[in-house]
Amino acid sequence: MNKKIIISFFAAVLAVTLFLSTGFLTILNLQKIEMVKEQLSTYNLLISTYMEEDNIQDLKKFDTMADSLRITLISREGYVLYDSIETLSGENFSEREEIIQARDKGWGSQVRTSQTTGDNRIYYATLLENGTVIRSSVVSTAIQIGGVVNGYIIGIFIISMGISFFLAKRISKYLVEPIKEMTYATERIA
Known about the structure:
The protein has about 190 residues and is of the alpha+beta class. It folds into two domains: about 1-25 and about 145-190; about 40-140, PAS domain (Beta-Lactamase, 2-Layer Sandwich), CATH 3.30.450. It is about 55% helix and about 15% strand. Strands 2-1-5-4-3 form a five-stranded antiparallel β-sheet. The longest helix is centred in the N-terminal third of the chain and has 49 residues, at about 1-50. The protein is rod-shaped, with a radius of gyration of 28 Å.
């Protein structure tokens, strides 16, 4: 009986800890994605302000802005006019979700795997006055939470499991002790 109480208590604490850790990581991830989108929006504003009318050469100045920053200029028809990472392809980008959103409401964002580079990216697209779309993206490190956070979570998890095991033993002792005394007393009476 003592063992069942310890296992039940331990399982409950484990379930709650896993649930809270998952929730915490999800919220942390979503906040980081939103922060990156705001940063990409600022990049797009900076690029569109600095860029002269349809001068693609101005975009090349931003190539060194950040190592993982990808800048793409997309024509009204959806074709790539400039891409800071890849050579130009004949691919039409007008069906990409962030481009559709940008054409509808002036801006759009999407987190997805890049069809060109194959890595997971956060995209932010801004519609310019001339009908072209400037799109910036970065590799999504938010999805891959850093080792420091994982280390803290694992440490907290181990400590909470140790504390829960200690508490489970103490609680089960307090619960089982009176039952044992009653069993002993009834055996003496019978």
